[in-house]
Amino acid sequence: MVKEERALSEKQKMFIQAIVCDGLKQGEAYKKCFGNVKFPDSRASYLLKKTSILKYYNSLSQEMERQAVQRGVWTRVEATRALRAVLEQAEKEIERTGILTRASVMAIIKSVKELNKMYGFYVPQNGNADNEVVFLDESNID
Question: What is the CA radius of gyration of the chain?
Fold first, then answer.
């Protein structure tokens, strides 16, 4: 027996719109639409697993992407693609040469750092968002 999909509620639509259109994180969008509840991230994750919600999310995401491309707007998807291309190119260079150059390592570090910032995984330590990697020569390593 095929289970019939129910129409989305207005709150469910607002939840998806808050993620896709407003750029809120899932938990933030859930609190905005459903109020201040315990475990908003878990509840948001559960909601996004529902087929009807996921279909609406994908549909709205595609529409927003299409509109952005028409307007010539730089999108998160395009930024992600560009950063992933830099990351993959640096990894290929290391594999090809077998040498860790400063340029390739910095390309990897900066790409990962930017991708993490875009997706909310980056939390600066001690309030400093410009943590740097310092290369030492072997004489400085104990």
Answer: 21
Is this model's pTM higher than 0.70 or not?
no
Distance CA 93, CA 100 (A): 9
- The per-residue pLDDT for 76 is 74
Q: What is the DSSP letter of 4?
A: P
Cα–Cα distances (Å) from 41 to 51, 62, 111, in that order, read: 18, 24, 26
**How large is the average pLDDT for residues 100-122?**
82
Q: Residue 45 to residues 20, 32, 37, 92, 113: CA-CA distances in angstroms?
A: 15, 15, 14, 35, 24
**Distance between CA atoms of residues 136 and 29, nearest Å:** 44
